[in-house]
Amino acid sequence: MAHTETTEKSMILMSSAAPPPPPHFVLIPLIGQGHTIPMVDLAYLLVERGARVSLVTTPVNAARLQGVADRARRAMQPLEIVELPFPPADDGLSPGSANVDNFLRLFLDLYRLAGPLEAYLRALPRRPSCIISDSCNPWTAGVARSVGVPRLFFHVASCFYSLCKLKAATHGLLLHDGNKDDAYVEVPGMPVRVEVTKDSWSSSYTTPEWEAFVEDARDGMRTADGAVLNTFLGLEGQFVKCFEAALGKPVWALGPFFLNNRDEDAVATRGDKDKPSAVDQDAVTAWLDAMDESAVTYVSFGSLVRMPPEQLYEVGHGLVDSGKPFVWVVKESETASPEAREWLQALEARTAGRGLVVRGWVSQLAILSHRAIGGFVTHCGWNSLLESVAHGVPVVTWPHFGDQFLNEQLVVEVLGVGVPVRGAAGPVVPVVREHIERAVSELMGGGAVAQERRRKCKEFGERAHTAVAKGGSSHENLTQLVHSFVRSGSTEQQTTQDRNC
């Protein structure tokens, strides 16, 4: 009887105890649109599952995220924007600055945020549950250790790229002696055959400063408690499994992040909405509404790539020569010269009715989700590729730097949903109008190969939506990630194999 009474008292005490506080995630994106946007999407995912999120950034970028803060406030969501002091002159990358010198300067400047971040974390009344930091912010590793907070790294690239880079580093393929080396070598340990050149890996990253940063970033991955990726198992399952085994720690595939963002206003203003456009979104939508289903090619090269006038002309002539309707996003900086502006105006007049040129910002998601879009000419940034595939839109691939070359290999050679602009995936070479005309015609054509490409892409799009739906792999992985920090505040999580086999 005494034992029964004690048990009953214990049950009463347990039932009356206060529930544990929601887990608190501190997210630290890299400055730059392509890195910040998916981290914001991840923040929304976490708060929708009951977590509290602090999105840490600099004052200039905090101003750009004001809409995020306003939306969270209206929805009474526990999502806050935390500003850390940082000189505004160095606050971010401007369009056209996509070169390794600018990237390295930014990466190294951000190390100065370590002190302010640690001060912020120590000032909190309760220690955060977890830090999720961009893999290009390796300085967060020391802060996490000092404060005693688990840390996950977020890699903005495809898992295919992340795994290739890890395997290449393990087998010494990233070592470079300064001499040109454009011979192809196979990356060992990959689930599929992958060949790269040493030049494509490292020819731009051979200075001592770059080598030191890259090694710091690798160490940041090695010492993290796990990884978060914006992908899904129905697209990159074999690479996620292999990446997790190679890291020896959990890898959480939670994407596509953006598919969980069902707020129409947020989708319509996602990205550089503060940049002016000569055509408003409603006008673009109305133009597309008048087009046949899957008839239009969308052309855009991300926020950083800047076309010189001579390359701009080749793109325009190639689109005209293809004979296909198109929507082409052109940056204002690309038409700064009077000659470029006059040329573009003449092209618009010549293609009126089947060509729409957008100068400035436009909602990429709103365009890719439109029924009239049948193809996308892209720079192969992972965000753009994921958005396109998730909407069942095949691509023409034109990589420019960084992870984009391996992303091209993934969509062209592994997934079979892309047409390389140069005829074969590989190092960048000058692109002329004949390349554009051929690739667009092949992508938008009606032959058996083109139809099979569209079928595959549609299937991946369906898998993407299944992954984020209740019971899908990404939905369940997110649930388990959040619950693991509710339970114990630790990163002792199940592996991907345990979760999904």
UniProtKB/TrEMBL annotation:
InterPro entries per record: Glyco_transf_N, UDP_glucos_trans, UDP_glycos_trans_CS
Domain Glycosyltransferase N-terminal: 26-257
Pfam families in the record: Glyco_transf_N, UDPGT
Key word Glycosyltransferase present: yes
Keywords: Glycosyltransferase, Transferase
Enzyme Commission (EC) number: 2.4.1.-
GO terms, molecular function: UDP-glucosyltransferase activity
TM region positions: none
Family label: Belongs to the UDP-glycosyltransferase family.
Protein's name according to its UniProt entry: Glycosyltransferase
Provenance organism: Avena strigosa (black oat)
